[in-house]
Amino acid sequence: MADVAHAVGVSSGTVSRALRGLPGVSDALRRRILRAAENLDYVVSPAASGLVTGRTGSVAVLVPFIARWFHAQALAAVHEVLRGAGFEIVLYHVEGTAERREFFETLPVRRRADGLVVIALSLTEREARRLDGLGMPVVGAGTRLPGGLPEAGIDDAEGAAKAVHHLANLGHERIGMIRTTDDEGVHQGVSRRRLAGFRSAMGERGLEVAAGAVVSAPWGADGGARAMGELLSLREPPTAVFAEADDVAVGALRTLRRSGVDVPAGMSVVGFDDSPVAELLDLTTVGQSVREQGLVAGRLLLDAVQRGRHGGSRVRLETRLVTRGTTSRPGGGSRAG
Fold this sequence. Notes:
six-stranded parallel β-sheet, Rossmann fold, elongated, about 45% helix, 434 Repressor (Amino-terminal Domain)
């Protein structure tokens, strides 16, 4: 450490603070110290550093899925921020019921990490209480957290309302919705909030939500395909459908194509997310910046760890309507709306 301090022209204490990510060192000086440490092959011992600071030098990330687009994008952004600040990342993947139950029973992050980021996980009240009692900074990325815990996310209800208003502006009155359930058939928080936004916007426009017009199915293209089949079987099918995720809309479009229903003349479809598949299929959707949610969540955690704070800001990022080729007036015509 003394060699690094001599090379940069600062004290050993300044080098120590910079290498451990502590406040009191400017970004420019921190970069100079990191370059000097790299040139001199100096490596901080996590164990030795932890004895001095009481920190592990690691942060944990809790995620229910790794392969899904949203979770992968958010995880990459969180990783970018925290690894860039010198933290090791400990990943907890809780896709199955057993893994999730074990995590919240044992809370293995205790004494193994300096903070936790939770990515797009709908928490039960008990799970939320367990996280609130961890005694370390906890930040949500696309996750609603209890109390004053910081998070970065969107207003799901507002986003769903944008889809309804777009379709209503085009002249649609019979509008359906496809919701999703988890592996146990439960509607998660995101689904509940988007349904609330859908119903609220329908009420604002004076439109009735017809019986059978809101259909639930498991997440994914197969679920969306099945749900669209149910909507088409109604005595009066909707002329437009809002699918609460692009991955679900993909299946809905598949059923419409196989049933010979023209899109958008015979049925308009709106998704949610603006994932790469939406652009590929020319799908009208409600976009959200997943990468930005991950970056903001990473910065919130970094700030909380460095300052030793357990509370923080709740950042709401905007959604946007992305109009493409799957929506038009009933029967075709102009796609403005």
